[in-house]
Amino acid sequence: MKERIILQEMKEEGRQEGRQEGRQKGRREGRQKEKNSIIREMLNRNMPLKDIADICRCSVKYVKKVESRMAAADK
């Protein structure tokens, strides 16, 4: 009986940790999608890559990566 209770508690603890990890991952992905969307919008407005990188707090290399994905999606 006591073993069952301990097992149930361990399962619940595992579920809570899994939910928390899932939420954190979802938030990271959401922020990344938002950043990419902002970068795409600025690229569409022909802003300089350096300015975009400074505003979005990322590297010029990352902005170029987003830009190349946009070009690939247009094909």
Account of the 3D structure:
α1 runs antiparallel to α2 and α2 packs across α3. The chain has one domain. The protein is mostly helical. The longest helix has 43 residues. The mean pLDDT is 91.
Helix content: over 70%
Oligomer: single chain
> H/E element string?
HHH
- Structural domains: how many: 1
What would you call the structural class?
mainly alpha
Contiguous runs where pLDDT drops below 50 for at least 5 residues: none
Strand elements, count: 0
Which features characterize this protein?
3 helices, 75 residues, 88% helix, mainly alpha, rod-shaped
What order do the helices and strands come in, and which of them pair?
Layout: H1 2-44, H2 49-56, H3 60-74
